[in-house]
Structure formats: C-alpha cells, structure tokens
Write a structure and sequence with these properties.
Elements (H helix, E strand, L loop, with lengths): L1 H17 L20 H14 L2 E3 L18 H21 L3 H8 L3 E4 L4 E2 L5 E2 L1 E3 L4 E4 L10 H23 L24 H7 L10 H14 L3 H4 L9 H28 L3 H9 L3
Helix pairs in contact: 3-4, 3-10, 5-7, 6-9, 7-9
Length: 286
C-alpha cells in the first residue's frame, strides 16, 4: 500500500495541473470594484453625465453627509421621477433662455445627490438641501416626490435655485453694494430661525434664512424670485398705511425690490442670463 500511495499522488497532481493549461485560477471570488450597470444607470449616463458632466448619486454613501446628520436613502422607484422633475424644472428652463444653456453647462455642479428624507441635525433642525462650493447639490425628501404637492415642489425648487445661485456670487462676487441695501437686518447663522416671515420682511428680506448673511440673502432672493408665483404681488407696497408696522413692511418691500433690481442687472452682466426670462420659463411650468 505504501508503494501504491507514492505512485498515485504524483499522477493526480499531474492531471490537475495539466487539464486547463491556459486558465488562471487566481481570480478573487468577490471583486468589490465590479458594479452592475442597470437601465437606470445607463439613462443617467446618457441624459445627465454625458450631456452635462453631471453625476447623479442615488445609491447612499455616508460621505455625502456628516457624522452628526441622520438621513434616509432614496427608494429606487423614486429616482426616475425625481430625475424627470430636475430636468423639467431646473435644466429645461435654462435651455430655453438666451445664453442659458451655455451658462448651465459651464457652471452645473458635477455631483447631484438624492436623499430619501430630510437631513436631521442633532439639535432637531432639518436641512432641506445643501451645496458644496459649486461642486455638489443635495436634494432631500426624494421619497415623498409629488410635483402636484405645492409644498414639496416649492421646497425642491427653493433648494435647487438657491444652491445654484451660490455659484454666481462664488465666481463673480455679489452685486456692487449689495450688502449695504439692508445692512442692519442680518442676524447671523445662529439666530435667523427665531424670526418669523413677517419680521424678515420688515428687515428687507424674502425669508428668515436670508438674514443669515449677504451670500445667503443673495441666493434666497434669487430663488424666491424664480419660483414664487406671487413674488411681485407679495412685495408690492401696501396702500393707505396707517400704522408703523405697515410703513416698516413697506420699507422692507422696497429694499427687496432694490435687491432684485441689483441682482437681475448683475446676472445679465456677468452671466448673460436674463432672470426675468428664466422666471417666465419656470412659471410657465407651475
């Protein structure tokens, strides 16, 4: 038996090593670099990445939020409708106005992030959307998508128009003397949320958040001008004022109108985009 064993082992080794002489058996079982390209991924690549250089991140990765933020991943069935919404209400209006397509393609952030719910902070505050120095815009609450729901729709439009407006002042600065239009009204980043809408109006701002600083004031004013259907009606002076509060609010409305005049002139000068035309293109979809 010892002699038989000595002969059989070399034979088995020879058979195993010579059956597939061209095959490489050192292939890892799990290759984490391989990703399956789905029909949705192909659609994103064709319509967003190739066309505008814009990557859509819908598969949740925790590097998109800080360790102190709590978020929900988007549901797969919500992604395509959200893509359609972004295209209809953000991209297409720019394509319809003079110089809009050129401006959009040159300045669109390379990353768009979809999150399923709102971003919750440790102190109980909610973040509706974020931007990262022109490199990324994050949409939240994607799982609740319903373009017929005005509250949801306006939240998304406020987010994207606000965050995209930051690109303008980051690259081309604020309009001349913009910070001097309502200098006493700014509250700072830590206290804007204690104001009501009416108190912000009295200070000359479209929203409490606009009082944070001049950059946020600029972006928030652009956003409200583009998506808020009753912008002109809401910020026209109230007639027959008989109280100090009424007069103060009219002064606030006047400051907001001054800001819009300054912003629209600045946009046309540095980007070639007429905000009035862009607003009309957006409003026709609402």
């Amino acid at each position: 038996m010892k002699g038989f064993t000595i002969y059989i082992i070399p034979v088995l080794i020879l058979i195993l090593s010579s059956c597939y002489p061209e095959e490489n058996l050192n292939v890892p079982v799990n290759d984490t670099q391989i990703e399956i390209v789905t029909e949705l991924d192909q659609y994103i690549d064709d319509h967003f990445t190739t066309e505008y250089g814009m990557a859509i991140r819908y598969k949740f990765v925790d590097r998109y939020v800080s360790s102190l933020q709590r978020v929900t991943a988007p549901r797969l069935e919500s992604v395509r409708p959200m893509l359609d919404f972004v295209e209809e209400f953000w991209i297409n209006p720019y394509l319809e106005v003079e110089n809009g397509e050129d401006f959009f393609k040159k300045h669109v952030p390379p990353e768009i992030i979809f999150l399923g719910g709102l971003i919750y902070l440790g102190d109980g505050l909610q973040v509706l959307g974020t931007a990262d120095a022109g490199a990324r815009i994050t949409f939240t609450n994607v799982n609740a998508i319903d373009p017929t729901d005005e509250e949801w729709r306006d939240q998304q439009l406020n987010t994207v128009y606000h965050e995209f407006a930051h690109t303008v002042h980051q690259l081309y600065k604020l309009p001349t003397a913009f910070e001097t239009i309502s200098p006493e009204g700014y509250t700072g980043a830590g206290s804007w949320f204690v104001l009501t809408d009416e108190e912000a109006l009295e200070r000359g701002f479209v929203s409490p958040y606009a009082t944070s600083n001049p950059n946020e004031d600029f972006a928030e004013t652009v956003s409200f001008f583009l998506f808020y259907s009753d912008f002109y009606g809401h910020f026209v002076d109230q007639e027959d004022c008989e109280t100090t509060i009424c007069e103060t609010r009219n002064q606030g409305r006047d400051m907001i109108r001054t800001k819009i005049s300054s912003i629209t002139s600045h946009y046309e000068k540095v980007t070639g985009v007429d905000l009035e035309e862009l607003r009309a293109a957006i409003q026709s979809r609402l």
